[in-house]
Amino acid sequence: MVENREKGTITMKRAGFITLMALAVLALCGTIAIAEQKGGSKWEFSITPYLWLPNVDGTLKYSVPPSGGGGPEVRVGPNDYLENLQAVAMISGEARKDRLWVFTDLVYLDFSDEESSVQSINFGGSLVGSSANASTKSSLRGMAWTLGAGYAVLPGRPVELNAFGGLRYFGLEASTDWQLGLTVTGPGGGQTFPRAGSISEREDLWDGIVGVKGRVWLGKSNWSIPYYLDVGTGSSSLTWQGLIGIAYSYKWFGATLAYRHLYYDMKGDDLVQDMRFSGPAIGVSFRF
Questions:
Q1: Going by C-beta distance under 8 Å and a sequence separation of 6 or more, which residues neighbour residue 131?
Q2: What is the pLDDT, as a whole number, of residue 210?
Q3: Most buried by CB count within 10 Å: which residue of 53, 168, 199, 219?
Q4: Whole-Å CA distances, 48 to 95, 98, 288
Q5: 32: CB partners within 8 A, 6+ apart
Q6: Do residues 287 and 253 touch, judged by C-beta distance below 8 A?
């Protein structure tokens, strides 16, 4: 009975995720189609290369390997900004026509040798706590891609407000090398987790999202306070992203300094139990 209930919950979650994905794609296609039907105005574009320097903080739950021996639950961070950051690539773009709006955002991050700790060991359903860490390091390589479409509810000064729907993909490759002060023994007898070893795993998440984006203009000046907030679900139990900052805009050019936070929450035996990326971002925009 419990197994059937769990299967039903998973099925409902997948159905809800498929529905969100379908609605996001339909909204995007509908926005483009409506914009194309409108005459008298043209598309306006902007592209923003930027740099985001997040702190990483989260929990990874590795699967139990087929050979047995237990799968570690690892706490990563929190680590200092720029610590062990190996590579970054970030860019966003927008297209507008009248009040209709389409946007995309791409982030690639590569961290190595992040300070970590083995919190517990999963011996096939039985968890054994561990506090005997000697040295544990984790490497994370991930990409987040967001695609959305929306409508300008408030298109001008003093407050701009755009509502949107879309989807976000998050792919993460994680690996952990651990050294413990002792070998951890499982509750079933004959099960052991070695004092030293390594493990790696990958997870791909797709979520439907809804949110708002805009800016608050500071009087009649070229300065403004940009903001962004989205929330969603699908592959993850919950994901949300927020940004707030200060920006300067002048005709075809703009510059923004902001603080950005991306959060994921998972349940069960997923690799990403929870993950936070938080830190400052700076970017320049080019409009044409």
A1: none
A2: 96
A3: 168
A4: 12, 20, 12
A5: 102, 149
A6: yes
Identify the pLDDT of residue 1. Answer: 35
Place of tokens 């720029």: 82
Interatomic CA distance for residues 269 and 60, integer angstroms: 10
Q: What is the pTM of this model?
A: 0.81
Three state DSSP letters for the chain: CHHHHHHHHHHHHHHHHHHHHHHHHHHHHHHHHHHHHCCCCCCEEEEEEEEECCEEEEEEECCCCCCCCCEEEEEECCCCCCCCEEEEEEEEEEEEECCEEEEEEEEEEEEEEEEEEEEEEECCCCEEECCCEEEEEEEEEEEEEEEEEEEEEECCCCEEEEEEEEEEEEEEEEEEEEEECCCEECCCCCCEECCEEEEEEEEEEEEEEEEEEEEEECCCCCEEEEEEEEEEEECCCEEEEEEEEEEEEECCEEEEEEEEEEEEECCCCCCEEEEEEEEEEEEEEEEC
Domains defined along the chain, listed by start: 2-287 (2.40.128.100)
**Rounded to whole angstroms, how far apart are CA atoms 20 and 38?**
27
Walking along the chain (288 residues) 10 residues at a time, the average pLDDT comes out as: 36 51 55 54 91 90 77 80 75 93 94 85 64 79 94 92 96 91 73 84 94 95 97 94 96 95 88 92 95
Q: Identify the pLDDT of residue 251.
A: 86
Residues 94 and 102: beta-carbon distance below 8 Å: yes
